Amino acid sequence: MRAHEVPAGGEAPPVGRRSLAGTDELLVIKQTEHPGEPAVLHRYDTPAGPHPRPVPGSEGMWQTAATGTPDQEKAVRRAFERVRTLGEYFGEGEFGTGADALIVQSRRDRAHKAVFAGAELCGSRHRLHIKGARKLTGSADDAVRAELVSGVCLFSHQNLRFIDEHGRGTELLRADAAPSAARLRSIVTEGELSLYEYETVLRQSRVIGDVAALLPSSLALTVTVDVPRVQYYLYLLDAFQSGLVAAELAQRYFRLVDSRYTRVLDLFRRHIRRALDAAGRPDVPVRTAPGLDPLAECLWDAVTTGDIPRDDDLLAMMIVGGDPMWKELRELDVPRDRHCLGYTSYLVELLRAAGLSDDGKGALSINVDSFGEALLFDQARQLRQRLGAPEDDPPSLGIYAAETVQTLRPDGHAASLYLTDPGRYAVDEDGTRVDLFRLIDALYAQPPPA
């Protein structure tokens, strides 16, 4: 496992200047244009003024102080207002605004900018993008129960590669990836966990623990961990059905997915458990989302026999063997085909979390995830309305903490760790090697149990 042990035969690399639960510094890793060269870790202090300051070397990334002055950018003021509103909703004194905000422009839609406002939760420092707090009223004491859902994907784009018959790498781990035109011959994967997987687990576990500590101790809370497994099987089906993947290679891929799922799920559950214990909530159950488990045996059989089930048959299996929400979504024509199955499974968990209980009172649902998954939250709310559920009673909240380190491509554009994983090591601006796993460990070290 790609963990945080000191490399054999050497001393531990430096992990940073401070050992805090989060940091006020903005940590930015910029990749070089030369393959094989380590990425460079930059550290930037909070700017003093209210006007956004471009992050050096970036395209479409700014940092600004949390001044709250009238001439501060409207989107920034709103982001901090949502942090304050959420703090008031939780009703605890340990929720306040942080020192700065990070603004990131979408590379695909340059008119869209995401703002991550600094927040301090129970001694932790995060930069948060919050959804569902705009019209928030009342308090968490009004809720009957709370459901928190969090997830992490497997591998990263650099961590798992398919090689075709011409020796070229082929991208398959994206729903919008172009189909392969050549026969796939092998799979190259790292035996260690990716920085994306490790950072996401530690960052989101810490947010989960902080939120649990802020909720009323009398409020029943369940945490659901949604890690995909069978969803990853689907990425290979088109190529297999087109005769571009041999059965043996497909089976090897399934085994790699299963192994990775087990390791990532175990790591995530352990860190969530530690965070909940530290928050004084050892009673909180941690549930594992079933995802597309009802399809696992069927898809294993399919790559053995070459007989891929029809889309309608796969949907029927989920309706019979999955959450009852699948039947309700099917009546809304969601999903439309097998390519939407994985995406819909994540929506099912968000809708289940906000579902109505027997007494007609829904749950306070909280999605703690990476910002790239925020669109799921928006679509789940739209589907909830189409299903006739009471609007925001109690509320659905989305809490998305910015990644510990912001990653820049060589051209300066921001990309998630999933898309642009620099690996375990980077170098400081003075050339000192930095173990990024140990850096993240230090920033998110768990406090002793409450």
Topology:
Blueprint lengths: L25 E5 L9 E5 L8 E2 L6 E5 L8 H17 L4 E11 L7 E9 L2 E8 L13 E7 L8 E5 L4 E2 L13 E6 L5 H20 L5 E7 L3 H4 L3 H5 L5 H32 L7 E3 L7 H10 L5 H11 L3 H7 L9 H13 L10 E6 L4 H13 L9 E6 L3 E4 L5 E2 L9 E4 L4 E3 H8 L7
Parallel strand pairs: 1-16, 2-18, 8-12, 8-14, 12-13, 14-15
Antiparallel strand pairs: 1-2, 3-4, 4-5, 5-6, 6-7, 7-15, 9-10, 9-11, 16-17, 18-19
Helix pairs in contact: 2-5, 2-11, 5-6, 7-8, 9-10
Could you write a compact summary of the structure shown?
Strands 3-4-5-6-7-15-14-8-12-13 form a ten-stranded mixed β-sheet, with helices on both faces. A six-stranded mixed β-sheet has the order 17-16-1-2-18-19. By secondary structure, it is of the alpha/beta class.
Descriptive keywords:
ten-stranded mixed beta sheet; six-stranded mixed beta sheet; 450 residues; alpha/beta; 11 helices
Describe the structure.
With 450 residues, this protein is of the alpha/beta class. Helix content is 31%, strand content 22%. The chain has a ten-stranded mixed β-sheet with strand order 3-4-5-6-7-15-14-8-12-13, with helices on both faces. A six-stranded mixed β-sheet has the order 17-16-1-2-18-19. Strands 10-9-11 form a three-stranded antiparallel β-sheet, with no helix packed on it. A hairpin with a 2-residue loop joins strand 6 (113-121) and strand 7. The longest helix is centred in the middle third of the chain and has 32 residues, at 247-278. It is globular and about 65 Å long.
